Amino acid sequence: xxxxxxxxxxxxxxxxxxxxxxxxxxxxxxxxxxxxxxxxxxxxxxxxxxxxxxxxxxxxxxxxxxxxxxxxxxxxxxxxxxxxxxxxxxxxxxxxxxxxxxxxxxxxxxxxxxxxxxxxxxxxxxxxxxxxxxxxxxxxxxxxxxxxxxxxxxxxxxxxxxxxxxxxxxxxxxxxxxxxxxxxxxxxxxxxxxxxxxxxxxxxxxxxxxxxxxxxxxxxxxxxxxxxxxxxxxxxxxxxxxxxxxxxxxxxxxxxxxxxxxxxxxxxxx
Length: 270
Hints:
Blueprint: E1 2-4, E2 7-15, H1 19-48, H2 54-67, E3 72-83, E4 98-108, H3 111-121, E5 123-128, H4 138-148, H5 174-204, E6 209-210, E7 216-217, H6 222-228, E8 233-238, E9 243-248, H7 252-261, H8 263-268
Antiparallel strand pairs: 1-2, 2-5, 3-4, 6-7, 8-9
């Protein structure tokens, strides 16, 4: 149970072992590869750093380990390195100018990290304001959600269409974002209602319209029906006494569809 904006909700965490996990695997592997490369470069820089004492080196390693998200440090050790004035191999009696302590070790990618991310990315949350599980069980919530994929959610696929240019939309204020979502939802409601009305009318009267391949269909999308009407034009002929309007390219199958939809639709094209 949770409270969001004053509305009590029941949240369900759903784990999708097949489809969601398969999609998540590509994203997780790509993220781990990129993050692992960054962590390797950071570890190489840390290994090159010289510390004044072993304790400083171990503290730096502990701090570095807390930043790791994709890899782990194995076989960590602190190596003492003496620095001499002259280059090359020092003489047996040479005195070092300074002593530095360097970290050493290897990085490895633990399987547990990938598996944990896969499980997290394969889960999604469903919320309902019906708190009584006897009236609406968990399985019913999941079935209702899956039922949306063929109805409600499908209507928002146009957002991914390159022609829509959704990436160019920018709204700074929350109120404007909410207003846009409301307008889009209402438009989708009208679109879905019209599509349902078209399909229902065709099924009841055993009629059909040609699909994209020219074959008869009783399950056209509203988008396709709109495209069928794109060739229909209104020609206005104005004279000194009268103004006539002619409907051009209104094919028989479109007339049949308008007739099935009702007199209001027929009147618009009469």
